[in-house]
Queue: 4 jobs
Job 1
Amino acid sequence: MKLRNNTMKLVVFYLASVALALLTACGQMVWNNPYPDSDVGKNILYNVFTERPKHLDPVQSYSANEIQFTAQIYQPPLQYHYLKRPFTLMPYTVIEMPAITYHDLHDYPLPDDVDADAIAYTQYEISIKPGIFYQPHPAFATNAESGWLYHQLTEEALSTIYRLSDFPETGTRELTAHDYVYQIKRLAHPKLHSPIYGLMADYIVGLRDYAGVLRNVQSGPQASGNFLNLNEYPLEGVDVVNDYTYRIKINGKYPQFIYWLAMPFFAPIPWEADLFYSQKGLVEKNITLDWYPVGTGPYMLTENNPNLRMVLEKNPNFHGEFYPEEGMPADYENGLLADAGKPIPFIDKIVYTREREGIPRWNKFLQGYYDASGIGSDSFDQAVQLVGQGEATVTEAMAQQGIRLEATVAVSTFYVGFNMLDPIVGGTTEKTRNSARKLRQAISIAVDYEEFISIFANGRGLPAHGPIAPGVPGYRHGQQGINPVVYDWINNGPQRKSIQVARYLLAEAGYPNGIDRETGAPLVLYFDVTARSAEDRSVLDWMRKQFQKLNIQLVVRSTDYNRFQDKIRKGNAQIFEWGWHADYPDPENFLFLLYGPQRKVGNSSGSSANNAANYDNPEYDQLFEQMKDMDNGLRRQEIIDRMVEILRFDAPWLWGYHPKEYGLYHAWYKNVKPNRISNNNVKYYRIDSSLREQKRREWNKPVLWPIALAFVIIIISLLPAISVYRRHESSMGIKKLQPKSS
């Protein structure tokens, strides 16, 4: 009996010891790692995305959430120097910068300093480097007889294909000038609806007529299925000189065209891929160029599940590019030239995980599972502190984790626009136009963007005094740059005018104290926004309070983004919010947003028109047409100053603010220099994966002693019960051994 009890205690003690040992061993593991064990220690960058990309075909893609992928995959002829400021164009796939020549109506060349009015067309001659190859792709796969393997897929062959990776064979070929010309022709394709077609049709010689030719072919008897072979139809303004050289002709002079050559719109597309993807069976399975890009860039898309994750992997055929060997003076001090001259890209794989909520994304960053993070309002105080003259730095807790802050003023502007076709805020007669202008000016003073930046952006922004963002030629600093309609210059700084001035303007507009003088009714205005989450309601409440300063009732009309775009396109919004991120660092890219022929309503360009306010001022338009073709200089600056002066007086926008972008980066994340103009930056980044694994283990050690303690307590608590059970069993055994009475 005693032996059994001792044995039971020894068994319990042994089990507790084993459990404790197992828990101790498990404590050396990381239990909350969201990635597979096979990824441990690998050269992988972990990133996030919040919105699924709609287009990955470079002819259609025009959103920031799309270019983070397309810019790593495609290679336009030019790119921006990663480190130099101001932003500087440099060759990407070309041997040297394009040769630009001006010509008259008789094709005679003109000197570089000729007046723009004398130029009939500008010619860009572009020569690409030999030896550049496409990523491995089934569109290039051939058989022993050099015939295409997958260009005439049967139903039987398609039955086993569900994604691009299901094709067992791939191939490649060399990049040629024909591929660049093919993509330019695609801008006019009637089924692709490129967002820059309208603009490019004004400049690329013959592009508008070419679109007409393609429409006729598409609707005519010669049309064959989904594929339109653009090689069969020449485009007047673009021609191939040889396999490595092509030319583009631009109507007149358009200096900004050089910037477009650094965008994916002008990246190469091989006709074989276009033909491959046009097969009906593949289109039905969503295996298209819009879903699976094919490029010559440093990375290729190997997994596309936009509701969960997207993966880029190093293109094995990419070579011949090196990390910059020069930069700005501070770049040397910040270690940004430690990898100078080394071959890129450094990172083998980029995993993008879709995160819809900010809190999980932030927590995973702190645990080391995301390599970088933005800073939401709810985590700002935890991450950032202001020191000195408003300079931002990370908090002590962040610094102890080795996290650093990178900040830059974005080449962007967020604004609230007035629909100039609206009878109240825009005016349709001379009298109502004057009244509406004073109403817009009054609202411009009342809506306090300094307060907005402080409350909702945690100080991350600069109040805008016009449409042009800092860092772009034409932007004025200091007293020269203030908006005198809204600000006074006091004590060496801009100060927003008194609300009394706004009320005076409101009364002059015909709405004293927010009451319509003619009808006696309160003034009610309508604010169109995209659908908002619950946490954004405070922003809308704040905006209502700004209008309430003038006793104006603001009614918010919230809708989804597609419906919002439709209302803007049809001119059905009264007041709306929007923003613009520069495509290229030139003032024309901001000032065209208020150019009359770019009006959304009544514009044949449709969705590619960008004047959402439908603003139309003849003097402004005339100056814009003069300014856009000029090189930067004193005369151009004078014209820009006058244009901005007109805009400030007319106030078609509440100028809003230029955001400051803050990014947090772990110590193992190297070579980061924020640059939103250049988007193909991933190839320059480097990850110290060993340091990352070490920190992940340190920061994510499971706290197991409570579990072990609870386990031991449970076992000890069971001992009395076990003892009782054993006594019961023993007594039953004794009874069984006793002889029965006769």
Job 2
Amino acid sequence: MERLARWIVKCRVLILIMAVALLIPAAIGYIGTYVNYDILTYLPDDLESMVGQGYLENDFNMAGTAMITVEHMATNDLLALKEELAAIPGVDEVLWQDDVLDASVPAEMLPEEIRSIYYNENATMMMVTFTDKSASDSTMKALEQINATLKENCFMGGMSAIVADTKTIAENEMPFYVVVAVVLSVVVLMLGMQSWLVPFIFITGIGFAVVYNLGSNIFLGQVCYITKSLAAVLQLGVTMDFSIFLLHRYDEEKENGMNSEDAMVHAIVNTFTSISGSSLTTIAGFLAMCTMSLALGADIGIVMAKGVVLGVLSTVIILPALILFFDKPIHKYTHRTFIPKLTKLSDFVIKHHKSVLVVAVLLFVPFAIAQSKTDVYYTLTDSLPADLPSVMGTNELKKQFDMATSHFIIVDDSVEGYQISDMCKQIEKMDGITSVVAYEKFLGAGVPDEFIPGDMKDSFAAGGKKMFMVNTSMKPATPELSKQLDDINALIKSYDNNAVIAGEGALTNDLVRVSDQDFKNVNISSIVVVFFIIAIVFKSISIPVLLVAAIEFAIMINMGVPYFTGTTIPFIASIVIGTIQLGATVDYAILMTTRFQEERRAGHGIQEAVKIAAETSSQSIITSGLSFFAATMGVALVSKIELIKSLCLMLARGAVISMVVILLVMPAILMVFGKLIEKTTIHFLGKPEKLSKERAVQ
């Protein structure tokens, strides 16, 4: 490693040139990476709802749909609007009453089965189907043109419209996330670092790693918009520690009399050794999300783990070159630090260490209960501003047609027409069903088969399957809709064992079930993998238990706060917050424990070693914790997407809670369990022969 470090120091100008040059392919990769704005597409492919979506997409060309409510519009204008919409590239069909009966027939003269589907007082409804799925580029562009075409009293809702608006608002906000995160991080670094220039050097060094990470996502095929929104901010917050460690070590070596180049060589070697070990816990925490059945976990986990690796490499390769290049101005323009070492707090905790642990144990019970009772939401509409066109359009569907969502029932074409009619009649009697749209219903309404257009017939039968649509007033991700889906599923499988239900309601219902299991899997796997890494690094049984317990206590407080504040959190937060908080902040506990071990090896007693470890670690922990807090809180303040806002708010709060828990509880743990740690850790105080030599010298 020393040979590599000397090469880095010697070739620092070449390294900076190469670093800048690599930004070009990274930028091209960033621009070329496809971003997926539909979370539901990340569900496992073998779920029945996803199988049904495959039928809709491949056989019926209905993977993407939107509902348009039109108020107070004459029939001729409606027909003209329909033709305009149908001509838009990416639109497959626009379905309305004239696809079944002549548009000249007055609404009041239509059979009730048809009138109830298309009309309600002064409003009528059209259904738009797209040639590709909701999240595709062609559908996104088509939706933009549809919005531009719609008249004043037209409202578009449904899943495709919501996905399109999510894309628009996310793309508009993402640049602000990075700007705000950078500005607030610089402010925190100004408070914690002595040099006026260092914060900008750190941001530049991390910036290279962030751009490389975002650009290399092109090799993954696609990333979720949540990942794209948070990757830069999280990478900034999580890897800032590495830069701080390098500079501190560099300054320390210079104070010991080394010249700049030799000091940087030693700083690189020692920093790489320390951060490669601590970064493993962060990487492992992110990779634990790959155990999720929901592929979104792997999406976030792989991108962030890759970001940490690139952050480490940037810290030991690019940042040293930057520091040496700006060495003179860095140490010329200095000021006093405003983040102090917490000497008095350390004294207080050591003096009252038993009381501190008792309070922690007492807090454990209420927050453990609160965490399990926190309310969670799963629908995209709940994460978007109420004044978005798609949200307003979806609400208009609910208002005019009492329709919150639609189910697409798909059965084998061997199921007879009369059996489908029977199914429709039984489904119509279920609570919450507002209408059932089926080819067989049109025939039942007295419409001769030869009068129904061929395109209309094809919409209900294709690829060896038959399909009919069920509209419901029940909102997705509610217990009522879940029961309704179970009842419908039991009914249709009595006619066809391979029948499936597709649509937003069924997908969201499966999302609820998958997420509940993912929450358990991710938490267990992240704890286990971090436990084993700490156990290997320290060669200890007790240290991983104590360190993980401290951070899990902080996580429990963070996850319990929404219950006491009456806040409903997005489902993804309940799954990933604990994993990210564990991986990102367990370093604080590792830092203090490592310093405690060093002081014990230096011959200090447990109390003195804890005091020194707590005091010397406090400044770095506070600077790191506040940097993470600032980056994520900045996004929470500017984002209008509730899902992003909630995630960042919880991450910001988690950073502060972890910071406080480590500063207060960790010293108390070391005081109480110090002897146990020494007995259950291999060579905690150093190898016997080495200790003998040191004592002989003394």
Job 3
Amino acid sequence: MMKQMRTLALPLLLTTAPVAAAPIDLTSPDGTVAVRIDQDSAERLTYAVRYGDVAVLSPSILGLDLDGQRKPLVGGLTVTGTATRTSDSTYRLVAGKVSTARDHFNEVTVSLEEKDAPGRKLDVIIRAYDDGVALRYRLPQQAGLTEMALRQERTRFSFAGDFNCWGLNLGHFRTSHEGEFDPIPAGRIRPSHLYDAPLVCQTAANGPAFAIAEADLKDYAGLYLTRPGDGSLGVESVLSPRPDEPKIAVRRPIPADGAFSPWRIIMLARHPGALNESNLMTTLNPDPAFKDTSWIKPGKASWDWWNGWRAPGAQNDIQANDATVTAFIDQAAAQGLEYMLVDDGWYLNSGGEGSVRPGADLMKVTPGLNLPAMIEHGRNKGVGLWLWMHWELLEPRMEAVLAHYAKMGVKGIKVDFMDRDDQWMVDFYHRLLTVAARNKLMVDLHGAYHPTGLIRTYPHYLTQEGVLGAEYNKWSSRITPTHNVMLAYTRLLLGPMDYTPGGFRHATPSTFDPRFKLPMVQTTRAHGLALYVVYDSPFACVSDSPDAYQGQEGLDFIRTVPTVWDEVRFVAGEVGQYIALARRKGDVWYVGIINNETGRTVDLPLSFLGTGSYQAEIIHDGPAAAAIARSTRTLKAGDALSLTLAGAGGAVMVFKPSQK
């Protein structure tokens, strides 16, 4: 049973004023973050953000563009009232990068009304946290406006300088959200660009950083970012259009309590790497609607697809049969893994990957695979089965399919190829996760849009793709060491990512050769091990074939490394160069370091350690890509540790308190 922690550390303070004197100043509880809310000469509501003494956002316009209305709900507005409040509470996550998080903010709600007819009303809610700012719209029910028909938001993030940024320019809306996060000066972002969340920027070489994202996305369209059409510095929101109404992003009734937008987030930290410490993504989502979470069990899984279904004694190149599935179940059991993931090919006429073949049927298992027998074999070995499914086949029969396989004993599902984030597809995610919870099935979503913090509301939603991950080693050279490092400064900020590490066939970037079966990786073994610490995924694949792990160094670390954590700290790094993240489980700290193609020596402060001394086991680069070296040391919080990293290399460290 998940215990909800909602005891207020401070009383809830609520004040209301009939009319606010502009500007309105809002600061975070510790005073680090400051927001100034004002109106410009066109009577448009604006907000500006500072982090400490650094200007992050200059006055940025807010508003909505509603369909069928004479003009956007942006200018000519009167502030009719404000309400402020302070809240301080904590909550638990069943599976995530922390076990407990604090929800501590100061908030102001600004009520607006048009001066001219039709006199539409709009509320803007802004919160200041110590690690960021969140804002959302509320469109109340009102005369002549009972439906939200939204063309676009008019939300801007006007940068206070020509900052260095890193982003994924997708360019279109029908996308799996898989690509590289490239450096770009803010001044080079164009109105033709379409950036995914997060867009990460740094205010100066050694200055604070921020990331723009969204949370609590429900009954709404996904967010993209582009340069404002007037050429001003910064970005503005663009919403994914409805397939049935391309000029409309959102169409929904306005309920009695109003129609709310998702939260627009500006995460803030002293360093780009420290953005990993923020919990705003989950904090801004609601608690789960169900209480019993005892069936949600994170863990690691063997997997048949990435390595090309290659298992000794199995019928290689045949996607799903008893011999192959048995071999991977046995591999999981031998390695102490909790699960085996059966990918595309197990149901009748499957195997089309992105396409749905004629006659494909999720309720019928392909000949040669006795699925109940495989589930029983896994149960006897202590290994649960997950099943891959194409979303187009699942959606029309969702209730029946999930109930059927849950009753059979399947533990989780991997649903793939959604490749959209319009309002309908966003609703599909919520329907799927609701039905999966009712059937006590864990979920991994592929072909998925960027995370929005839903792992709090749906704690069985263990991981998702929406990342250019290790599968691309099968057909490209795009999964470079630099790319791996960049993911830790960008995509990782939003939530778990099913990158699928575990490749044990190591090459150097110069000797790497893409191949679909038995793929290589472009990093050292130590770099590959460190991905299990640096990257967050409560359902983590151990992706290579059983023979790749036979007698190999480092497998012992994969067996024992946790998949959920109590705390995370940024230790050291430089965007695109290297990163060191520390994660705590109980009283044990794990540190993962991944490096780009350039060898370097790094000094790691150990201030994250508690009092007393620790026994540190260090696994680092050996003399060859597939080799590792090990050492042990006694260290404490005041010490610094120097490590030499190979090009494409890395290291992992396990700090256990010394026995008294």
Job 4
Amino acid sequence: MSVAYNPQTKQFHLRAGKASYVMQLFRSGYLAHVYWGKAVRDVRGARAFPRLDRAFSPNPDPSDRTFSLDTLPQEYPAYGNTDFRAPAYQVQLENGSTVTDLRYKTHRIYKGKPRLNGLPATYVEHEQEAETLEIVLLDALIGLEVTLQYTAYEKWNVITRAAHFENKGGERLKLLRALSMSVDFPTADYDWIHLPGAWGRERWIERLPLLTGVQAAESRRGASSHQQNPFIALVAKNADEHQGEVYGFSLVYSGNFLAQIEVDQFGTARVSMGINPFDFTWLLQPGESFQTPEVVMVYSDQGLNGMSQTYHELYRTRLARGAFRDRERPILINNWEATYFDFNEEKIVNIARTAAELGIELVVLDDGWFGERDDDHRSLGDWVVNRRKLPNGLDGLAKQVNELGLQFGLWIEPEMVSPNSELYRKHPDWCLHVPNRPRSEGRNQLVLDYSRQDVCDYMIETISNVLASAPITYVKWDMNRHMTEIGSAALPPERQRETAHRYMLGLYRVMDEITARFPHILFESCSGGGGRFDPGILYYMPQTWTSDNTDAVSRLKIQYGTSLVYPVSAMGAHVSAVPNHQVGRVTSLTMRGHVAMSGNFGYELDITKLTETEKQIIKEQVAFYKDVRRLVQFGTFYRLLSPFEGNEAAWMFVSADRSEALVAYFRVLAEANAPLSYVRLKGLDPNQDYEIEGLGVYGGDELMYAGVAVPHRLGDFISMMWRLKTVQR
């Protein structure tokens, strides 16, 4: 069984893959955390938590000074009744107090995994894939019930957690804090990893030692953001990419989040994660309930790569959904960096004609096709075709593209409105705003209030009409500013701080409805590039534009860091023009191709202006990628050399049967009289021989244990791709 309860010891034992997660009921119903790590047959107290009289740790039972919630490792702790550490939740009563006391009431264990109402989450296709444990905690004084939801996957070292609040009392309750999970570790002898960044520099890997006090990654921007990502990991001091213990925490949510680690006076570490309590409250009338998002917790004893491979497989096959989940993604050309707003029908058709000659499969029309959108100062919200640019409309353009043998895709930004637009002039109250305050703009636009049902209903129908108007098979869904003046004209004063979360619930509803109406369309999410690259969005859209920064050197770190959590099938990666539009760097078409071919491949430049030599290189890149596309998008991914640790980067993709692999190697800057470089490969069959095209035939064991020598080449920005196939001895 995946989940078992022992009534004699009052222990819950969750077995997920090759990991164990153990909890126990103490004294009068306190739920304590006992163990999480490599699978064990049973937990009998070999590492029992010592009972000590700790000075300045008060005691809920005055007769026992060795028992305090301040020292008990807990599963869902409160604040105010002897635990001084960060709580998982906090509730305000009508009398103004915030002290609560949750105790065990009951539990149930069942096969499968339930959906979370209104929220994205991982899922099962058959109930045998997982078992779920629900533990109901009750504060009998106020009638608050909190159901802790745990699911243990059979195949993977994965435990998912969430919490459901229900007000069964007679008075109103106000949630001030409602995190999805909390885990107390008995030691703080770890490093922690998070993925900070900025626009054009998303998801860089930062590894730091745990220190006494609070360390956190969070967003207060109304989105998961470029600046942080809803992921952290606890990493053993000796752990690296391929060995050592790692604990990963990933929040399936796209809005404001908090991921926090607190190291207390006794050297224990409390990890908690969920919706950011900052500027958040939620009013629970009697009978009302609240559901937190899901946290996906992964244990690995095979280093960071082991953790990543678990997230990759789970998120690719049990988070992403729809027809494109397991389907190869098309090679596309996007006109944005080729034309920006300055295009017409003839220009797009010419790009499509050249794309067809090069073997590209999809043409994407980006921003500027609607309203009077000649720049970014106007017309967002006016989703009507600009007939001056496109006299035959989207349908006429799409059919011309289709006649060339190409698919047609479209850019939209449904969550925003320009002050200079017909929509805003008609509905100025439809954007996020607060009374009597200026409405701050970002990129000359405001954020539509998706906490309102009427706004969501309007956008569902408007965007559906656009997508039904032409043979569209791909949509790039963009979002180009974060939230300010977060308030809603449709909510009463006591619910204003619910706006940001209600926005996310509205957005998820809109995305769910539109993607369900158009199952034949491949949706790619975007937020100024990678500003909302999170698991919540992947539930609705199986891929995301990884970054607006398409420079090949910058993308080494961006794509490497992104791969810590997210599968390659989720990463959009394009070849753009040089000098690069974001950093001004000049790299070879070959290196740009190798970096972009390490994700969902495409181009973002004016291919009509290329030389014949450049067109031939692109034609060869396109043909090569088509041949290795399934391996790249759905193979097992290994990180080999980190661009954060040196002048080189390398990674590889291995087929499920280990008969084929693709290795990508990159060197950023040349060095005079440099030492030789060797790359140790991973994931091969040690008993098989592999032919590396252009290099020779070698044993899988030799390639993994001794490594392969990197051919010497002069110059900056060098890249190579080696394709491996097994050969008969």
